[in-house]
Amino acid sequence: MTDLAAVKAALKTQAVETPSWAYGNSGTRFKVFAQAGVPRTPQEKIEDAAKVHEFTGAAPTVALHIPWDRVDDYAALAAHAEGLGVRLGAINSNTFQDDDYKLGSVCHPEAAVRRKAVDHLLECVDVMDATGSRDLKLWFADGTNYPGQDDIRARQDRLAEALAEVYARLGDDQRMLLEYKFFEPAFYSTDVPDWGTAYAHCLKLGPKAQVVVDTGHHAPGTNIEFIVASLLREDKLGGFDFNSRFYADDDLMAGAADPFQLFRIMYEVVRGGGFTPEVAFMLDQCHNIEAKIPAIIRSVMNVQEATAKALLVDRDALAAAQAAGDVLAANGVLMDAYNTDVRPLLAEVRSELGLDPDPMGAYRRSGWAEKITGARVGGQQAGWGA
Ligand code: PSV
Ligand code: MN
Ligand code: MN
After folding, report:
1. In 248-363, which ranges are E strands?
2. Is-above-0.90 flag for pTM?
3. How confident is the model at residue 379, as a pLDDT?
4. Could you give the dihedral angle defined by the CA atoms of residues 366, 371, 376 and 381, in that order, rounded to the nearest 10 degrees?
5. Residue to mutate (ligand 1; options 28, 69, 211, 214; most atoms within 8 A of CB)
6. How many structural domains does the chain have?
7. In terms of CB atoms within 10 Å, which of 50, 263, 299, 329 comes out highest?
8. Is 205 inside a domain boundary?
9. Is position 126 within any domain?
10. Minimum-distance ligand to the CA of 139?
11. What is the CATH number of the domain that holds 109?
């Protein structure tokens, strides 16, 4: 039997970080469809993130991407966030948009380009000092397009050297989260393509280096929950970039494409003791055709639903069935939890927190969408091309 009160108490502590770039316009390489009312500044992105938190009660921090969110005064930006009831979260670096990075950033064959990239990462740590952020999230677009283009092993050495310099700069309460992705924009070799590579680098660096799992960054069919279980077992799971995908790095709403996979991942998190602030639950999404704020509210709710189902798994019954080798009973325990309609439970949790039980409806009724559509003209593009 699961303890419902404990499940509700756990759900009340859940925090999902939303990404500043998800509030801006985005698109594919073919077209960016501009939406009315999107933020023009980092301050306005934070205003929108604060709305997501206001209606879900579960999105208290917002991640920044530098230089997309570059400002003169980061402490003032943090104060702006706090005034709106949220905090600044992970600082995401960007070493993929300058012409200099055509052949890579920290793995580039030229020392001068590597220096520039590392300096940017160090600047991101300065930003963290000013914002009070704990996590530096690193994703490198580095790789090669053709066999022989560069020395794959030498690139690993350059990566290790760069990471070590940044690691040494981290404060006592700061961490480095290393993200992997199997391809794109490089199409032959990627310098951090998988969790094994990320894990090997993080292990060498030390306890402040952790792996981040972006759910859209694996080959189709990859058993992501196995990766989650393994990283947790090794104390190396720093967090998630949640999103969902049908094909490649689609960056669709978390839980939209495969809610069962999200449940399986959350089950391993819960089972592995990862439902703690040490594992950052972040979204990394782009809302190309749908309205952004409600899409992000929906995504947060999807993560909550997967978490609620994972918490509902009758672990004693599961352990007993597993020990007895009863394949069907064990699978049945897991499926019973997955097939539970947790929406009433989450509505109750929200009411107990003083929130509207229906965040989507509450946002719609709030009039915020109409207000920003009238007030903001000339919204920013989220990332590429910004
Ligand atoms: C790369 O595909 C990635 O997932 C990294 O987290 C980037 O920083 C982010 O997308 C930008 O949207
Ligand atoms: Mn990501
Ligand atoms: Mn991605």
Report:
1. 280-283
2. yes
3. 65
4. 30
5. 214
6. 1
7. 299
8. yes
9. yes
10. 1
11. 3.20.20.150
